[in-house]
Amino acid sequence: MTRFTKRHAIAQVLVCASGCCCGRTDKQKPAVPVELLKREWRARRLNPRVQLTISECLGPCDQMNVVGILTEFEPVWLGGLTETRQFETLLAWATACHEAGTALPLPAELDANRFARFPAVPAPSAANADSRFSPEPVS
Question: CA 119, 59, 121: angle at the middle one, nearest 5?
Answer without folding.
Answer: 10
